[in-house]
Recover the amino acids of this structure.
């Protein structure tokens, strides 16, 4: 499943299609615990093996080159720390390419959401850990966090 990582433009289209598919059922998704649990299971089964998803409940893959920023050893959501090595590797795990170096490169391959790499995101709300990012997005929970943070 990790082969999907090699195709950020394809993942971007899948993301856009998923938004279009789920949006009409927004009110049902927000109200139904069964659907919510199903979304959590689906996210765990797909996003974990493909993106090493950390189930933060506030997925920003489409803003970060289809790379989960929570895989950064420092869990940085708005770009690299000051310790990125000259070869692009992580200061904490020198054998690993910096998540943000990869995100930057991959965002260039994404015609729809690629420019979102420049958007500053709200800090992570840990209360949403292990909840469905799709349900949170459709319910507006993640927009509320962004609005509260940026005001």
């Amino acid at each position: 499943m990790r082969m999907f990582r090699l195709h950020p433009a394809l993942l971007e289209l899948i993301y856009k299609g998923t938004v279009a598919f789920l949006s009409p059922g927004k009110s049902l998704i927000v109200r139904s615990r069964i659907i919510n649990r199903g979304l959590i299971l689906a996210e765990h089964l797909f996003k974990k093996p493909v993106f090493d998803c950390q189930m933060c409940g506030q997925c920003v893959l489409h803003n970060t080159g289809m790379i989960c920023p929570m895989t950064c050893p420092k869990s940085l959501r708005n770009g690299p720390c000051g310790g990125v090595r000259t070869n692009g590797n992580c200061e904490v795990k020198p054998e690993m390419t910096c998540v943000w170096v990869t995100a930057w490169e991959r965002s260039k391959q994404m015609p729809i959401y690629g420019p979102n790499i420049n958007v500053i995101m709200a800090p992570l709300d840990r209360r949403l850990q292990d909840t469905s990012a799709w349900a949170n997005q459709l319910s507006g929970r993640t927009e509320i966090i962004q609005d509260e943070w940026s005001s």
